[in-house]
Specification:
Largest sheet: none
Subcellular location: Nucleus
InterPro entries: HATC_C_dom (IPR008906), RNaseH-like_sf (IPR012337), ZnF_BED_domain_contain (IPR052035)
Radius of gyration: 22 Å
Shape: elongated
Helix content: over 70%
GO molecular function, one term: zinc ion binding
Structural class: mainly alpha
Main location: nucleus
Order of helices and strands: HHHHHH
Pfam families: Dimer_Tnp_hAT
Number of domains: 2
Amino acid sequence: PSVEVVDQLESYLQQDSFRCQDPLAYWYEKLKAGKWPQLSRMAIDYLSVPATSVDVERAFSYGRQTVSLYRHSLSSETIRATIVFGDRCKAGLVDDQALVQMLRDKASRTKTVSES
């Protein structure tokens, strides 16, 4: 580790200990504030790793379904977007009504352009 990272770690360890309900949010706050930037990034990387391989295995399974024999020509960007979108839908992070409205708006714009 660089001297700067060691200094940041020593500075962090000199702080009084406390209970933290959301360690990831704590390190994001420190990163935004510019306090211990390298240490914050390392902590965020470490805390972002899934605790089990179940999520990773599920992602590969979903990816295998997405890239089937009939969809093998999809671009990597499309595959990534599809998997991320599906994951966010499953987690309840997508507003279904807003999505339906967006798709309807897009369909009506496409229809209007093709009729012109």
